[in-house]
Amino acid sequence: MVLSRTVHSESDVSLHSTFASRYVRTSLPRFKMPEESIPKEAAYQIINDELMLDGNPRLNLASFVTTWMEPECDKLMMAAINKNYVDMDEYPVTTELQNRCVNMIAHLFNAPLGDEETAVGVGTVGSSEAIMLAGLAFKRKWQNKMRALGKPCDKPNIVTGANVQVCWEKFARYFEVELKEVKLSEGYYVMDPDKAVEMVDENTICVAAILGSTLNGEFEDVKRLNDLLVKKNAETGWDTPIHVDAASGGFIAPFIYPELEWDFRLPLVKSINVSGHKYGLVYAGVGWVIWRNKEDLPDELIFHINYLGADQPTFTLNFSKGSNQIIAQYYQLIRLGFEGYKNIMENCQENAMVLKEGLEKTGRFNIVSKDHGVPLVAFSLKDHSQHNEFEISDMLRRFGWIVPAYTMPPDAQHITVLRVVIREDFSRTLAERLVCDIVKVLHELDTLPAKVTAKIEIHEEKGFEVKQTELEVQRKITDFWRKFVADKKKTNGVC
Q1: Which of 126, 184, 322, 363 is the most exposed place for a label (fewest CB within 10 A)?
Q2: Measured distance CA(75)–CA(92) in Å, rounded
């Protein structure tokens, strides 16, 4: 006897395949909450289908952020995903792990700590928050000094290079600090220490040096900056300090450039930030800021709360956040140790050289990045008469690669570069594959008309001067693409 069953509900997921269900076949409102609930399977499938259109994180060569961790660490992170980082009384072991990380990193940066002395530092959401906290400490300490001297303290400034990450501009704007930028020049894309010290005055709360420029990976000369500032401070009676933004280079220099003096070995370096989610090898969401000693972090900036249990000191811009990134950072520090980090950074550097040499063999590119610095390759076309870097970046997406093209800051804005960041999960095989795909793109571009140049020539026929130098043509092409990107509201981000 055959038994039949009547279907009582159109949404009976036991009888409908996922893609035949009405929840997947009809669209949901995009900007309003739907009136009715939907099955969990349908919600998952709808979101998963849309996310398929995202780029592949492993092939996102624009970003410095870690895109792969070991499965064992993934398990630890998932187990801690429901722990609130700020509940120190409820999760004392997590707090202890954070304190261990702070001390490990402080020793890595040669902080002048005694045998029983505890380091001064804090975990943050990333280097942006870390820089905000360090900047606030410098500003408050400068204000206290100026008030004690009976001098005005309403016009603080900070000296940086024009190559700094946007978080420095945010700090200056949000906390009302004048940003004094040292302009770049063609062939020199980092802050010039001599020019930076010339810009220092009595109202300078600190000079920010970058250990690993976002633009080309180059380390700034912190040692020379320190020596010049020591001399100027002695001449003027000021005590202008240094902050080192080691977001990218902080987990590189100690392992493959141990002789380089950039950290707390230099007396004027009072604080350092580093991104755990970059070469600290943790997924996005963790950074660190370390102070030289307690005197460099004004006590009035630290809040004390007790409504979560015991007395808890806190110095952050946010409050609640997950604990899993802190746990992941501790995992990496003890799992890899000094030897492991050194091996990974050396491997990244070697793969960067493979990519660099492959690009040089094409004969089509100038290498803008330096061998000494963050493992990345920044490069630009030698000949811009036919096509430019933005076209190469756009066409590489057809192969799955995300390679950003961008213009340099003032006064080198006429220079356009492509940049490939070499992370732990970017192998030698991928480096060789990328070179092959770039060659294919170049070959295809060579068979196409020069679209941008053609458009510029049309404008020239309508009244612009025709005879131009190669540099003028390059600047016009760059200006054209910048306007094109702005019109399309397309952002080629520098991460």
Answers
A1: 363
A2: 20
For residues 306 and 314, give the distance between their C-alpha atoms in angstroms, rounded to a whole number. 11
DSSP-assigned letters across all residues of 361-406? HHT-EEE-S-SSBSSEEEEEES--SS--HHHHHHHHGGGT-B--EE
Q: What is the pLDDT of residues 126-163, one digit of tens each?
A: 999 999 999 999 999 999 999 999 999 999 999 999 99
Question: Are 211 and 250 in contact, with CB atoms under 8 Å apart?
Answer: yes
Instruction: Classify 203 in phi/psi space as left (phi over 0), alpha (psi -120 to 50) or beta.
Output: alpha
Question: What do you get for the CA distance between the two ends of the chain, in Å?
Answer: 67
Integer Cα distance of 474 and 450 in angstroms = 13
Closest to 417 measured CA to CA, from 57, 163, 56, 160? 163
- Maximum C-alpha span of the chain: 104
- pLDDT tens-digit map of 157-188: 999 999 999 999 999 999 999 999 999 999 99
Q: Is 336 exposed, middle or buried (0-12, 13-18, 19+ CB in 10 A)?
A: middle
44 Cβ contact list (under 8 Å, min separation 6):
none
The helix or strand, by DSSP H or E, that contains position 314, with its residue range, turns out to be strand 312-314
